[in-house]
Design brief:
This protein is about 35% helix and about 15% strand. By secondary structure, the protein is α/β, with parallel strands linked by helices. The chain has two domains: about 1-150 and about 285-325, 3-Layer(aba) Sandwich (Rossmann fold), CATH 3.40.50; about 160-280, 3-Layer(aba) Sandwich (Rossmann fold). The chain is elongated, with a radius of gyration of 20 Å.
């Protein structure tokens, strides 16, 4: 893990010298976020622990995050906290918006110093309502950086379809020669369609569920940005029940009303919700490397935005704009 961290810091030319950073603490690959920032020269890093529940432990997240920084010999500049306090806000230059750090509320934004950036660990268009108080950031001139996951250094063009194929394997649906309806109206479509076709699937892309026509579909893949209501609700599931009653519905991204799916006797994978707004499988399913590349890419993007570097189409760094924020869909 430490070798991957140093390699990514060099590859991305990440330099956070003198910056004070807030990142999530975690007991998985995300635990590396604090050490990546420290290796890149951050003056201090505060790691925020998740709330303890049946799925994860705040204590384990703190231990894993601290242990990795200790192996790197950089734990002296690391602090582990349960929440972001007001004093930490006032001295933070780079705040990574990722569970359990988020949501980044107005009260947090108002206390950030003049030189500060809120960093998304995903693409700008993937922002989910409530993740960051965008209006507060605008009012206080705090830019919101994002990372182009399809940039060659990050590798989303490879890991996005790979994660989709992992869902097929978990659902015990063979992608080879499968007839797949991909419900997707966003930039994920190109990478997912390509990956499925390379795996031997026959793919048709639909921007909405109600456009899926009757066919002998083997799988219906949902890849829509989550909203307040499930992206496949009772009405859409009724359409799918008529068009593809024997297909397995695979949740890549976007929530599904599983109660309604049971009513229509539809097969859904994962059978239990992974959590509101979450991906069907975590990126860590593919190992530590893609997670570390995305973390490092997000930090590098924030570094560039904080320095005032211009962003370009296809470049690594993105800045959230009004076009990326939806009031409704």
């Amino acid at each position: 893990m430490l070798s991957l961290i140093h390699g990514n810091v060099r590859t991305f030319e990440l330099n956070l010298s003198g910056l004070r950073v807030i990142v999530p603490a975690d007991n998985g690959s995300l635990a590396a976020a604090a050490t990546i920032a420290l290796v890149a020269g951050a003056a201090s890093v505060t790691a925020i622990t998740p709330q303890t529940n049946r799925f994860r432990s705040a204590e384990e997240a703190a231990e894993a995050t601290r242990a990795l920084a200790s192996v790197a010999g950089l734990s002296r500049n690391l602090s582990i906290e349960e929440r972001i306090d007001h004093q930490t806000c006032r001295t933070t230059n780079l705040l990574v918006s990722s569970d359990p750090v988020g949501p980044v509320t107005r009260s947090i934004v108002e206390r950030l110093p003049d030189r500060a950036v809120v960093a998304l660990m995903h693409e700008a268009w993937m922002l989910i309502r409530g993740e960051v108080d965008v209006e507060a950031c605008r009012e206080h001139d705090v830019p919101i950086s994002a990372v182009n996951e399809s940039h060659p250094l990050v590798g989303g063009a490879e890991y996005q379809p790979a994660l989709c194929l992992e869902l097929f394997r978990a659902a015990e649906v063979s992608a080879a020669n499968a007839a797949v309806a991909l419900i997707c109206d966003n930039p994920l479509a190109d990478n997912l369609e390509r990956g499925l076709r390379e795996a031997g699937a026959q793919v048709a892309v639909f921007p909405r569920a109600d456009l899926v026509f009757e066919h002998s579909w083997d799988a219906i893949v949902l890849a829509l940005r989550p909203l307040d209501e499930p992206r496949l609700g009772i009405r859409d599931l009724g359409v799918i029940a008529k068009a593809a009653p024997a297909a397995t519905i695979i949740q890549y991204w976007g929530d599904i009303d599983r109660k309604a799916a049971r009513y229509f006797e539809l097969s859904v994978w994962p059978p239990r919700t992974p959590g509101k707004g979450q991906w069907g499988l975590p990126l860590e399913t593919l190992g530590a490397e893609p997670v570390l590349r995305r973390i490092t890419g997000a930090l590098k993007s924030a570094q560039l935005v904080l320095a005032g570097a211009p962003t370009q189409p296809g470049g690594l760094a993105q800045v959230l704009t009004q076009n990326d924020v939806f009031d409704s869909e």
